[in-house]
Amino acid sequence: MSDSPLLSLVIPCYNEEGNLPELFKAVSQALDPLKISYEIVITDDCSKDRSWKMLKEFGARDPRIRVQKFAFNCGESAASFAGMRASQGRYIVTMDADLQNDPRDLPAFVKALEKHDCVCGTRVKTRGDGDNFIRIASSRIANWVRNKLSGEQISDAGCTYRAFKRECVADLKFFKGMHRFLPTLIKMEGFSVTEITVSNNPRFAGKSNYGVWNRLFASFYDLLAVRWMKKRMFKYKVAESIN
Ligand code: UDP
Ligand code: MG
After folding, report:
1. Which of 21, 59, 77, 120 is such that its CA lies 20 to 30 A from the CA of 221?
2. Sheet holding 118-122, edge to edge
3. Sequence spans of domains, the chain
């Protein structure tokens, strides 16, 4: 992969027609000054609006925009996973298509990757800028429960704006909803994980796919599985060896 880019932006997309033109513009404004090679890998999760038609047009105009479309709606995790698999960059950045994750934070991610294997965005200080009270309260509770039960200190596990070296996810088993546990799973693989504050914009256009129920309860099973896995994983250190 000698001519593969340094950075792959991996973006799941479901009914984001109102956001795509602005997204591409904002990404190029943020990344072009850095003079690094990058690609944008978008997986259309079988949108019902004009997203796919627009993505094909953007892809035809710019080879750095690589797009694929699912045969049926598979969910955000699957779309993000398929994008990672299709990506070619040394570093992977996962972000939403709706501009809640601000591309202007991308240079800070790239910088932080010089010192860490995985960099997670946290919106704890910026939540109020883009979310209403219900969203803020529900994710605060969800993060507290998640950290308590999984013995973690990830301040914003629901934030999917993250950057990591490709090898961080090479051996992971992917499952639905795993995006909430990615920092923990990457740590379990022995990689270093840090957090940086990211801005939290209101959605540029369109509407959110999740409600409070999803935020608070849907991931509870997954949480128990991750807690179990973390407890039961091997912890050993070879002291000496010959040949
Ligand atoms: N998404 C997807 N498939 C789905 C639902 C969502 O690919 O079935 C994408 C969506 O287009 C967005 C990201 O996943 O880029 C996060 O979704 P959303 O913005 O609705 O979640 P929220 O930010 O409200 O938690
Ligand atoms: Mg969103």
Report:
1. 120
2. 65-69, 38-44, 7-13, 91-94, 162-165, 118-122, 193-197
3. 7-232
CA 120 to CA 154: how far, in whole Å? 9
Q: Which ligand 1 atom sits closest to the C-alpha of 75? A: 8
- One digit per residue, the tens of pLDDT, for the chain of length 243 reads 558 999 999 999 999 999 999 999 999 999 999 999 999 999 999 999 999 999 999 999 999 999 999 999 999 999 999 999 999 999 999 999 999 999 999 999 999 999 999 999 999 888 777 778 887 887 888 888 889 888 888 999 889 999 999 999 999 988 888 888 999 999 999 999 999 999 999 999 999 888 766 666 768 888 999 999 999 998 889 999 999
Ligand 1 is surrounded, with C-beta below 6 A, by 12-14, 16, 45, 73, 75-76, 79, 96-98, 100, 208-210
Beta strands 65-69; 91-94: pairing state: unpaired
Q: Which CATH number fits domain 7-232: 3.50.50.60, 3.90.550.10, 3.30.2350.10, 3.40.50.300?
A: 3.90.550.10
Ligand with minimal distance to 132 CA: 1
| 39 touches 66 (CB < 8 A) | yes
